[in-house]
What we know:
The chain has 2 domains: 33-176 and 237-335, 3-Layer(aba) Sandwich (Rossmann fold), CATH 3.40.50; 179-236, no CATH class. Helices cover 33% and strands 18% of the residues. It has 11 helices and 9 strands. It has helices at residues 84-94, 122-137, 152-164, 179-187, 193-207, 220-223, 228-235, 239-244, 263-272, 294-300, 310-321, and strands spanning 33-41, 44-52, 59-65, 98-102, 142-150, 168-172, 250-255, 276-281, 330-335. The chain has a 9-stranded mixed beta sheet with strand order 1-2-4-3-5-6-7-8-9, with helices on both faces. β3, α1 and β4 form a beta-alpha-beta unit. α2 packs across α3 (152-164). The termini are far apart.
Amino acid sequence: MRPSFSLIAVFLTAWLGWENVALGTDENGAPIRQEPIRLETPTGTLEGTIDLPQGDGPYPVALLIAGSGPTDRDGNQPAMKNDALKQLGEGLARKGIAVVRFDKRGVGKSRSALSREEDLRYETFVADAAAWLKMLRGDPRFRKVFVIGHSEGALIGMLAAKQARPDGLICISGAGRDAPTVLREQLKGKVSEELYQASDRILKSLQAGESVADVPKELMPLYRPSVQPYVISWFKYDPVKIIAELDMPILIVQGTADIQISVDDAKRLHEAARNAKLVVLDGTNHVLKKASNPVEQQLAYLAPKMPIDPRVVDEIAEFLRMSPPEPGKRSSEPRP
């Protein structure tokens, strides 16, 4: 089993007739290249895909880190397929930027790299990301190495950046508060008051580093005993404090239609960072797709043919290819 913290409700299973997104070509219509890539670790192999631009390079390369739960290299979970990260990687490759997307330890084709959920810690994912960055730094095809973290992957990316010192960091839909605060907010009004109080009791124990044996069955997906060591290790990190320690160019991207992470979270990260640019995208949701009404919001999580907002690709590509912020400079740019 793998940690699963997704709090998304059960979505409609209707299918909209979006045309296939043209992600297999570069800006001139030529096919992009995709190759398998592996990271060997002492406890197993992590499997990934590298989206490569046309030409021989060297190119900038970005390591793309997925969010919480059993999210794979494409941005999908067993009951939730949207291809958001696949579209992002391929979109950046069309703009001349190589992207490495990988299945996290215990997920997808990297499942065998995790034998027991009880052994997983937050630092495990951080060490894996840092190892990927180190491997990419030594690859002659790449001239600069960046890290992109989506959702929970933003915090993992921050912590890996402290270790591996990439050339820059991109945080997409990353929380600006610690995990217990976000979980409390996400559960408020979504469960009964009795379950909310039970969750709060469990959260307080886990924040204190103490495991909990008595977990209501409704809360088992969040707090099952086997995942509690991971949760305890996760809860000690405050993203605002971590991002404040980083001395590198940072791009923070946040959508106004995100029902999981708020614009205020992005502003907290921006205010804490030394060297950051904040871009707020009007109408973009948590899985990087435009959502102007509740039906689109729900379907976006389940519709792999629904394209991501092209502004996400454009803003990241500009940051990676053009001029990142000057040292010590903060800028904030809304995008209508």
